[in-house]
Specification:
The complex is a heterodimer of chains A (321) and B (623). By secondary structure, chain A is α/β, with parallel strands linked by helices. Chain A has a domain of 209 residues. Chain A is 62% helix and 9% strand. Chain A has eleven helices and five strands. In chain A, a hairpin with an 8-residue loop joins strand 4 and strand 5. Chain B is mainly α and 623 residues long. Chain B starts with a helix and ends with a helix. Among the domains of chain B are: 89 residues; 141 residues, 3-Layer(aba) Sandwich (Rossmann fold); 196 residues, no CATH class. Chain B contains 24 helices and five strands. Chain B is elongated and about 145 Å long. Classes of the chains: A alpha/beta (321), B mainly alpha (623). Chains A and B meet through helix 2, helix 3, helix 4, helix 7 and strand 4 of A and helix 1, helix 2, helix 4, helix 17 and helix 18 of B.
Chain lengths: 321, 623
């Protein structure tokens, strides 16, 4: 071996080292090109495999397709809901228009929008103590009959009763009334039926606590039906009920009608106020001065004593403080 | 190797190497071209598919829009028909929009979404001319009834549309009912009109919708033109009575199915507001039992979560109308099989058994397997002797472990407050307002506010007042006894007179203070009964416990009878066990209640004595 190396070195030394290294380098190059060729084949195989397994564009396509489908179905749902609401609104508008034309504008004097102010005020006020009830008196046949003694026009007679009641309520309250009488004479024409008027009024005035008095006749004497609805208790919550039983209010007697209406308003207002804020009966003391008929005064006093007794006996004394 | 050969070899090798490299590069280039073409082809395929899909979607959308337009046209025609026909064919003085109670005019903040929808009742002229003549009087009577007993304030809201039929000459037949229905489909409504009359019998045509749930029993959510026969003819009052009973029954079904409200008809019948013949009452009772059974069998009731309201239903129905062996609670249980009862959770069993204890007639349910179960439970608790000695159902319950379940359940109820307190408040207000109609009328205005106050202010005051009073009386007595007799606190036995005085005084105070429905006589009787066998501490606890039962659960006391069943001498073990159960639980209840309501207590010195009292209740060795 040593001899061979020695011979090689000698040979190199004899012919020069460059060709030997050039030969070596060329051989190396050749070898490397073979290796590279092999690598390229491998690389191509790898790229082919990668291309086969690469699902980017397929995934992208699937995503776009999914978006397209969802967008389509949501569009459809939106369109369906949109037209449903549009038609529901149209129906509701139609029904409301019908209501306004047929059941409101000829029957009641206040505009529907004029009540917005009251609703807004109620919404802002959280204390029931300051709450004022809207007092309304219906234009009933019995009231019409009683007021006809004046022989004036029918509309003026109704106005006269309302004015009388408003004056009494204002006189009794001395500026601190449980009632607001802004809409007291709300009827433009005689009431067709109590329930329908109550429901129509309630539909517009719901949310605004109100007391509506209906003077009716039964067995030759007057009686008052009272309709109420409440603050913030929402829709479908009104009550119609007969007020206290007054035996001495003769049907057709104008003075009795006014006395009875005032007595009913007084009782309703005092009870509501005392239950809500625990305040004493404010209007009770005015009954003696503001009710002319002694018999009705007596009946009202009795009703007051029953109410007072009931209030004291009941759990409401806790509310009354 | 000479240099020339070397050079040739080197060049040859390099050339070969270059050739090899070039072939690799070409191969790579070719591959790239092919790959690029493949990619482009695939992209084109995918884009083509995408465009096809889009095209398909567009086509579908266009078809949909066209279909919508067609439907829209039909809707528009419907609206036009509604608009024109509403003017000509709507037969009432109240427009559909007011009946529907559209909320569009109210701000959102003013809307109570949980409110109950009323059920409208229309009594209109029909084909029977003779009965039509009675219609005004009939309406007046029915109106008086509904406005007094079926109002929003009472939870059963039926609004009679009195005098709302616009044209009195027009008859209300099935067509009219269907016309009204087409405008107010979602509003629960009953339409009644006289249809025919023969001597002794009047027929009404009955249409109603949105009253019953489709899933509830056999009843449909709407029905038109059915016949309702009533036996009393020409007598308006009797006719009104029958009609009111029917309407109340329908309202009960509506209230129960939709709002789980307790039936009113049995209550009103028992109070004499409505008069029902035995036959009619039996048929209504059968319907009530059937309704509950059907709902139960169809899985529309959650026996566990709704056990309280279901038992209230049974209580109302069984308590008044039960006659011929039918039993509403059996419907609740699922059948009369005892296994159904036994498979219930313990606390639900407790509810049922406490109910059964109040209704001895229901004892039939407790037979066979149930008794066996009870006996096993009693054996486990070593109360067998008590069971054998106690013949009545309530004694069985007292002597079983279920008794403790009842007590625990009540305790939970008391602590939870909420619904019970609200219900009590409502019931009390109901009872009160019956005295003055005007107050009933004003109720809606007061309702929301008074509920709030009752819950937040009155309830704690009530509890505190009651407990303070009891503690005060107890303390007074103990002090007197300690001073006078020098006996130990927890062993002080009374002589009859002294105890009787104190007991009656407490009873009087409680009665005056809270105006319970327990009469003075009952309280005195309680006092007399208890003083003989207990010392003052136990008596006070019993009164307190009775009172808590009354205040919070609203019915008479289940375990009341057990004190009279046994005397101390006859069965010490039973007596001690039950006494211990009550006193321990009561002590905990009162402690927790007063602990919770501390902020409401005044600064007087009674607080310090409370702890002593409750320690005494819990720790006393005499219990």
């Amino acid at each position: 071996m040593d001899e061979l190396i020695k011979q090689g070195v000698e040979t190199n030394g004899k012919h020069g080292a460059v060709p030997f290294f050039a030969l070596l380098f060329s051989a190396y190059n050749f070898f490397m090109s073979l290796v590279n060729k092999n690598d390229v084949s491998k690389k191509i195989k790898q790229l082919k495999a990668e291309a086969l397994s690469d699902s980017f564009d397929r995934d992208k396509y699937e995503l776009e397709l999914e978006y397209l489908r969802r967008s389509y179905s949501e569009n459809i749902a939106f369109q369906v809901e949109n037209s449903r609401r549009q038609f529901a609104n149209m129906r509701e508008q139609q029904a409301f228009k019908y209501f306004c034309e047929r059941f409101w504008q000829n029957q009641f004097s206040m505009t529907i929008n004029s009540l917005d102010l009251l609703r807004a005020a109620l919404l802002e006020s959280s204390s029931p103590d300051n709450m004022r009830l809207q007092l309304l008196v219906a234009w009933t046949p019995a009231l019409q009959k009683a007021a006809s003694v004046f022989g004036m026009q029918v509309k003026e007679n109704y106005g006269r009763v309302c004015k009388d009641l408003r004056d009494r309520v204002k006189a009794s309250a001395a500026g601190n009334s449980v009632y607001s009488t802004s809409f007291i004479g709300a009827w433009l024409q005689q009431s067709r039926s109590m329930l329908s008027d109550v429901m129509n009024l309630y539909y517009v005035m719901q949310g605004i606590p109100s007391v509506v008095l209906f003077l009716n006749e039964c067995d030759g004497r007057f009686m008052v039906d009272i309709a109420t609805w409440s603050i913030r208790t929402g829709n479908n919550n009104f009550t119609v009920c007969r007020c206290f039983d007054c035996k001495s209010a003769t049907a057709g007697n104008y003075a009795d009608a006014c006395d009875l209406l005032y007595a009913s308003a007084s009782l309703a207002g005092d009870i509501a106020k005392s239950m809500l804020s625990g305040s004493p009966f404010g209007m009770a003391s005015t009954v003696d001065t503001l009710i002319e008929s002694p018999e009705i005064r007596k009946d009202v006093a009795e009703a007051y004593s029953v109410v007072e007794k009931t209030l004291l006996m009941s759990d409401f004394k806790y509310i009354m403080k | 190797m000479d240099p020339i050969t070397s050079a040739i070899v080197i060049i040859g090798i390099n050339f070969a190497a270059a050739a090899v490299s070039k072939s690799a590069a070409t191969k790579m280039e070719e591959y790239r071209k092919v790959a690029q073409k493949d990619a482009q082809k695939r992209m084109l395929e995918l884009s083509g598919a995408m465009y096809r899909e889009r095209l398909e979607s567009d086509r579908k959308m266009h078809a949909f829009v066209l279909e919508q337009q067609r439907r829209g046209n039909a809707e528009n025609l419907g609206i036009i028909a509604e608009q024109i026909e509403a003017y000509t064919k709507w037969p009432l003085n109240v427009p559909p929009v007011a009946l529907r109670g559209s909320l569009s005019l109210l701000p959102d903040e003013m809307i109570d979404t949980a409110e109950r929808q009323p059920c409208f009742l229309l009594v209109a002229p029909g084909a029977d001319k003779e009965t039509n003549k009675l219609l005004d009087a009939l309406q007046e009577s029915v109106f008086e009834y509904t406005s007094s007993y079926l109002t929003a304030a009472r939870g059963h809201n039926v609004v009679l549309l009195k005098d709302c039929w616009a044209n009195s000459l027009k008859e209300c037949g099935e067509i009219e009912a269907r016309n009204i229905h087409s405008f107010v489909k979602d509003v629960p409504m009953i339409v009644v009109s006289p249809y025919d009359s023969t001597p002794g019998e009047v027929s009404f045509m009955l249409s109603m919708w949105n009253i019953f749930d489709r899933n509830a029993g056999q009843k449909m959510s709407y029905s038109f033109g059915e016949t309702l026969k009533m036996k009393n003819s020409k007598n308006v009052k009797a006719l009104a009575n029958d009609l009111c009973a029917f309407v109340t029954y329908i309202s009960d079904c509506y209230g129960w199915i939709h709002y789980r409200e307790t039936p009113q008809l049995p209550v009103l019948a028992s109070r004499g507001v409505l008069s029902l013949s035995e036959e009619v009452a039996d048929s209504y009772y059968g319907e009530y039992v059937k309704l509950l059974g059907e709902m139960s069998n169809k899985g529309l009731l959650s026996k566990l979560d709704e056990s309280d309201v279901i038992l209230e239903y049974c209580r109302a129905v069984d308590g008044v109308m039960q006659r011929n062996g039918a039993f509403a609670a059996a419907g609740f249980i699922g059948s009369t099989k005892n296994s159904a009862l036994l498979s219930m959770p313990k606390n639900l069993q407790a509810s049922v058994w406490s109910y059964i204890a109040e209704n001895p007639i229901a004892e039939q349910v407790l037979s066979g397997a149930s008794l066996h179960e009870l006996k096993s439970e009693c054996l486990r608790r070593n109360w067998m002797k008590a069971l054998e000695d106690c013949p009545s159902v309530s004694s069985k319950i007292c002597s079983s472990g279920i008794f403790m379940e009842i007590v625990k359940k009540r305790r939970r109820k008391i602590l939870l407050l909420g619904a019970d307190v609200k219900k009590q408040g409502l019931d009390k207000m109901r009872a009160i307002t019956e005295m003055v109609d005007l107050r009933n009328a004003l109720r809606p205005i007061l309702q929301a506010e008074s509920h709030r106050r009752f819950k937040s202010e009155i309830y704690p005051e009530l509890i505190y007042d009651l407990m303070s009073e009891i503690v005060r009386m107890h303390k007074k007595y103990v002090n007197e006894q300690i001073l006078e007799t020098g006996k130990k606190l927890n062993h002080c036995l009374l002589d009859a007179d002294a105890f009787s005085d104190v007991g009656v005084a407490v009873a009087t105070d409680i009665h005056e203070e809270f105006k319970t429905s327990l009469s003075m006589d009952t309280l005195k009787e309680l006092a007399d009964k208890h003083f003989r066998i207990m010392n003052i501490g136990q008596w006070v606890q019993t009164v307190a416990y009775d009172w808590i039962d009354y205040v919070f659960l609203g019915h008479d006391i289940v375990h009341k009878d057990m004190w009279s069943v046994k005397s101390q001498k006859e069965d010490d073990l039973f007596y001690e066990n039950v006494r211990y159960s009550i006193s321990y639980t009561l002590g905990n209840i009162t402690k927790e209640l007063l602990g919770e309501e501390d902020r409401y207590s005044s600064s007087d010195d009674s607080r310090s004595s409370d702890d002593t009292f409750f320690d005494y209740v819990v720790m006393s060795p005499s219990f």
